Amino acid sequence: MRPHELVDYLRMTAVDFSPPVRSLIDTDFYKLLMLQVIQAKYPDVKVAFELIVRDKTIPVGDMINITELSKYFDHVHGLRFEKSDLYYIRGQDLHGLNMFKEPFLQYLKNDFRLSPYTLQRRDGQLRLRFEGTWSQATMWEIYGLATISECYYRSVLRNVPKDDLEKMYRRAMERMDRKIEKLQTEPGLRIAEFGTRRRHSFLWQEYIVKQFKKNLGASFTGTSNLWLAIKYHVDAIGTNAHELPMVLVALADSAEAMVDAQYQVLRDWESMYVKSLRIMLPDTYGTEQFFKNAPAWVSEWTGFRQDSGDPMTRGEAYLEWNKSRNVDARTKLSLFTDGLDVDPILKIYDRFHKRTKVGFGWGTRATNDFEGLLPIPHLRPFSMVCKVVEANGRPCVKLSDNVNKYTGPKEELPRYLKTFGGAGRTDDKVFV
């Protein structure tokens, strides 16, 4: 793919109907893994998701044509899983196990529909909400974010001259080449591409996946994007997300049940996938309390994912927890996924790779690093998420290891801190 091809596509989107998301498998693999659990165990739970733009300096609502955005959401809402999609999903056996069961595949074929959405512009920001059964609403997260992200950058670049756009894409390619060269100095690295939700565009994400496959060799473990994994014959990578404990904790009726709900997520996951994909995500309500309260069987899980707080202290906490359980950390995996770029990846790898298995999920800074390539504002990546906010009418909360990643009503914060504590939480700026 050459710069002029990316420019031609960008120009074409200004005049033709060009949905950023064209297939239901243009999503992160973990969403399907979670959907199977949700559909099997919680089919009647009602939820709502909402868009949260953490960076208030980004005028998302002013930049995007809301009529055009609605048409793209309507397009996604009308999509169905194709026969070929189901063929590939059925064949996913990354861990020597057919991960998707036949009743679930029949559900995708015959019954799966996305929930309705509501979209408004208010005070320069978008107000976006998806509401329905958990099975209907959950898949909107990635479709919604990827659509908004690409529409935003189309708008930012719409009036830039063609020659300048070609220069921008050429510089972005050169920037990625330099990043890959740095990574090639550590052949033991294991990196997956995790950048679907806040990508510059689908075509740019596709270019990045091709470059990783071509140049990183065994260091490239795969992509979270199922469509691209299928197209480029690489592994689809995914585990689980904060959404599961956020809903189960919200549904709990006592403080004790709230604490246990974190581990019910793991029990549900293990019952569906047996020993596959056993990567815990401990930071939803604080990593320290998660390890402190974890039942003995949790130490049998394959590893943990760090997604907030300081990666060095969180990584050390996991190693220390394994030591306290008489577990050899060299048999475990530490997966780092929080706002990474090349230099932090190399520093984290240097600190931990001789003491435990280490992996990285490289997201926004892989698929959307255009900051400074043109002298125009708002080209940088920014922090935008789509979080579950209600479950059966109850508010959903995420504390996080970083206080600036807190989501939920402010009035719920004291109750959650009383239940889970606030040990180990830091106050770090959120870039992406």
The biggest beta sheet reads: 6 strands, parallel
Question: Low-confidence runs (pLDDT<50, min 5 residues)?
Answer: none
- CATH hierarchy, class of the largest domain: Alpha Beta
Number of domains: 2
What would the CATH topology of the largest domain be?
nicotinate phosphoribosyltransferase
Give me the count of strands. Answer: 11
The averaged pLDDT comes out at 96
Q: Write out the strand line-up for the largest beta sheet, numbering strands in chain order.
A: 5-4-9-8-7-6
Q: Bin the helical content.
A: 40-55%
Shape type: globular
- Looking at CATH, the homologous superfamily of the largest domain is nicotinate phosphoribosyltransferase
Secondary structure class reads alpha/beta
Annotation field: number of helices? 18
Keywords: Glycosyltransferase, Ligase, Phosphoprotein, Pyridine nucleotide biosynthesis, Transferase
Protein name: Nicotinate phosphoribosyltransferase
Pfam family, one: NAPRTase_N
Domain Nicotinate phosphoribosyltransferase N-terminal: 25-149
What would you say this structure looks like, in words?
A six-stranded parallel beta sheet has the order 5-4-9-8-7-6. It has a five-stranded antiparallel beta sheet with strand order 2-3-1-10-11. The mean pLDDT is 96. Strand 8 (333-336), helix 16 and strand 9 form a beta-alpha-beta unit. Helix 1 crosses helix 9 (162-183), helix 5 (83-90) packs antiparallel against helix 6 and helix 14 (287-293) packs parallel to helix 15 (311-324). The two termini are 26 Å apart. The chain has helices at residues 3-13, 29-41, 60-63, 66-77, 83-90, 102-110, 134-137, 140-157, 162-183, 202-216, 226-231, 243-251, 255-273, 287-293, 311-324, 342-352, 364-367, 413-420, and strands spanning 46-53, 117-122, 125-133, 191-193, 220-223, 279-280, 303-306, 333-336, 357-362, 384-391, 394-395. It has 432 residues and is of the alpha/beta class. The protein folds into two domains: 3-160 and 384-396, nicotinate phosphoribosyltransferase (Alpha-Beta Barrel), CATH 3.20.140.10; 174-367, nicotinate phosphoribosyltransferase (Alpha-Beta Barrel), CATH 3.20.140.
